UniProtKB/TrEMBL annotation:
Residues 158-222 form the Transglutaminase-like domain. SUPFAM superfamilies: Cysteine proteinases. This is Transglutaminase. Pfam families: Bact_transglu_N, Transglut_core.
Amino acid sequence: MRLWVDHTTHYTFSAPAARGLQRLRLTPKTSAGQAIVAWKIGLQGARLEVEYDDENANHVTLIAFEPGVTEVTIRCEGVVDTSDKAGIVGHHAGYLPLWHFRQPTDLTATGPRVRALVGGLSGKQDTLEKLHTLSALVRGAVEYASGHTDTASSAEAVLAAGHGVCQDHAHVFIAAARALGVPARYVSGYLMMKDRVEQDAGHAWAEAMVEGLGWVGFDVSNGISPDPHYVRVATGRDYRDAAPVTGIRYGAYDETLHVTLAVAQQRVEQ
């Protein structure tokens, strides 16, 4: 499947921004099940400083605001070919050892609620079956609903709230998988919804290491493993490692953020 992505992030400041730096993790990875045909990032009100691959092998674009700007626009547009690998990404690659992905973070720490969730798993299942069961348990414990959590909500807080979004589902799944001793990581990317081109936001899911298969994806929010409708962009131990945009800004001003995202299938000319 060939997917076209158009993702625009627009900032408006109430007063000129003195200066700012932002890390963009907005360039998809070429990996099992996807190949980048074309991808570009356009900037208005900011300039490119440097590009590099981080410790998770994410491609990072570092940008700086133009002095005194009141608006900054970041537009990513590209085409990605995807294929169905049943969610299997394969062998581990990158600069970090697998044990790194067994370590808890602030967002994926194991507490009593995570341990209780893991306690509901059967010891008779193999790892892959157990992870699919875990995905269903997380989905049952955390109803999909916005407005109950934010980017700083931990897995324990999400389980306590009983509501969350895709980011929260991923964090709870990752925390539980690590409690089982399974390496797990967070994935940020895009999902083409079948009923529309304009999307509400980017998407997030989890991947876990399964012996004999390598990394395998689990989209808890939709109850499936990623298929050709998904585009992987960045990975990490949690959201903070894979966030699309992070950075610092200086100046006494209020900020308004507006994001538009379109994902659509393109016809491949023979």
